[in-house]
Fold:
Amino acid sequence: MKAVVLRFDSPQISFGSVIVDHHNFIDDFPGKAALTGLIGNGLGWSHGDFDKLQVLQERLDFAARWDVEPERLIDYHTTDLGQEKMRSPGWTTRGVPEHRGGGSAKLGIHQRYRHFWTDGLMTVALGVSPGSPDIEQIMQALRFPARPLFLGRKTCMPARPLLDPVSPVRSGEDLVSILETTPVWDRSGNAVEPSGRLRACWSRGVVSERSGEMRCVYDLRDWRSQLPAGSRWRVEGLIGGKPS
Structure:
């Protein structure tokens, strides 16, 4: 099979997880919905293209690996949504104003604890089943995106192009095999030999002979209703390198 090789490098990365009260928690790895939105954004799709986004989410699969382990940052926010400047519509990169909805919740002072990963670097092997967009179209969308791309929240702008500059497409038996044969990077983008094994994740059933911890993740989205919808099993374990 073939996979697109992505390098996630940003001062801050946010892989959204289940929100509890005022805490916007993060996951250790990206979710299917996040990668679907990333590609859809690059293709120029809108939230109204829910049928195309839903099909793309069902076709996607991936394996991810932390090349450089990140640190967790918790950012404390207070926002007075009653200010006049907050009542006015904001302009978007699409050239049209965007109004804030939410009834009574759109006013008053809100507190948020937003969690981020900082100073990490991740490699992702992204596969897609036959259909449109195919691997070439996805590569083109990520190389020349229709809109700015971000890794989680809009403030998490990539520090480098997302596609691997040397081998943006690699082949292998499965996504984990492809990930293991993809060079490990340091923060400067240099290939290095890791001193130990690296944390990674992959979908259940991709490979049977690898050990790891099975975890139920809630990373699927109903794109028509714009709500989280459904869960799946993911395996998290160590790959590559030399056992420590």
